[in-house]
């Protein structure tokens, strides 16, 4: 069909597309076409026949006045107009889903489900205490926690699989789509099995530790890059034998049964080195240097408001972060004052 564009300088009226007949079914169809790339699969997703879906697609193009898709041997490809409409349609449909959830939570009164994401250290340091507190003060709120890497958590937030997360913005994500409250750097610690030869030393140097096997996260991971950068900056050779894994359980199991060492978030090290953690099988080594991963933050979607239940837990985390900042500031001032005296 020929392209039709609005006359130059003409601003569309409010509700123009709705007045022309654009319906929710059209929005669902364009999103389904973007997701599946097939008219038949999109029709199945909407529960209509393929001819009906084709008619709806033609209706959409007539309403908006520009071509939205092209057909080829393997299915359907959206035009730049179709991509933009699909993006906007997805945001509108997600907004309706969020509204339904908010209305349900408001009706029930402080009830609802909250999905929180966190990197491992923050999950133990911040999220776990908040969950325990919420179980007492907000017993009707159900909490789901996703522990993952920051890049995957950012993807989950954009896809509305989680409500907010504690982590970092990495890679090529658009920072303009997020709102951040910085928490601070994440300290790391070195752990080994109880009875490891290095536990007999009052302090452990990096040079002494690299003699042993190491367990680290996958190559390229931020924590691993931080550790390797710390070693290289001090002209310490990288460990020759490294087991790479993103599994904390495998890390703990391997070092508890060998002379390998690992560098993990300090919150993780402190948690599992307690006597009631793993029966005292894991200990924190007295490393003579401090290693920190760059600051992580409390992150929300910039364009999607939190639901009432999510807002409650978000504020609990934010208050904890503010309080911990104040404590850290007080301790720093105390140290400075003592140094002067």
UniProtKB/TrEMBL annotation:
Matches recorded under InterPro entries: HTH-type_LysR_regulators, LysR_HTH_N, LysR_subst-bd, WH-like_DNA-bd_sf, WH_DNA-bd_sf
Record domain HTH lysR-type: where: 22-79
The keyword Transport is annotated on this UniProt entry: no
Family matches, as PROSITE patterns: HTH_LYSR
Keyword Transcription appears in the UniProt entry: yes
Record keywords: DNA-binding, Transcription, Transcription regulation
Residues making up the signal peptide according to the UniProt record: none
Gene3D superfamilies: Periplasmic binding protein-like II, Winged helix-like DNA-binding domain superfamily/Winged helix DNA-binding domain
Annotated family: Belongs to the LysR transcriptional regulatory family.
Protein's recorded name: LysR family transcriptional regulator
């Amino acid at each position: 069909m020929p392209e039709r564009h609005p006359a130059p300088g003409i601003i569309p009226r409010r509700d123009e597309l709705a007045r022309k007949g654009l319906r929710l079914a059209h929005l669902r169809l364009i999103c389904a076409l973007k997701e599946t790339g097939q008219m038949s699969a999109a029709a199945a997703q909407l529960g209509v026949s393929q001819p009906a879906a084709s008619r709806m697609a033609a209706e959409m193009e007539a309403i908006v006045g520009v071509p939205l898709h092209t057909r080829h041997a393997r299915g359907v490809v959206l035009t730049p107009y179709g991509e933009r409409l699909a993006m906007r349609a997805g945001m509108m449909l997600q907004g309706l889903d969020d509204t339904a959830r908010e209305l349900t939570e408001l009706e029930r009164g402080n009830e609802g489900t909250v999905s929180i994401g966190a990197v491992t250290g923050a999950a133990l340091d911040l999220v776990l205490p908040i969950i325990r507190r919420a179980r007492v003060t907000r017993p009707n709120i159900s909490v789901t926690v996703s522990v993952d890497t920051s890049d995957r958590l950012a993807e989950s937030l954009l896809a509305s699989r989680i409500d907010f997360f504690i982590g970092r913005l990495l890679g090529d994500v658009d920072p303009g789509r997020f709102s951040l409250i910085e928490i601070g750097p994440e300290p790391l610690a070195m752990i080994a099995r109880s009875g490891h030869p290095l536990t007999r030393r009052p302090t452990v140097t990096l040079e002494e530790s690299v003699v042993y096997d190491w367990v680290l996260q996958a190559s390229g991971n931020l924590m691993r890059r931080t550790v390797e950068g710390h070693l290289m900056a001090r002209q310490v050779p990288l460990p020759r034998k490294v087991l790479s894994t993103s599994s904390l359980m495998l890390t703990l199991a391997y070092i508890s049964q060998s002379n390998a060492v690992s560098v993990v978030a300090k919150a993780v090290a402190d948690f599992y080195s307690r006597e009631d953690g793993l029966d005292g099988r894991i200990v924190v080594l007295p490393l003579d240097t401090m290693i920190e991963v760059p600051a992580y933050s409390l992150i929300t979607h910039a364009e999607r408001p939190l639901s009432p239940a999510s807002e409650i837990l978000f504020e609990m985390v934010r208050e904890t972060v503010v309080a911990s900042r104040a404590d850290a500031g007080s301790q720093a001032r105390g140290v400075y004052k003592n140094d002067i005296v």
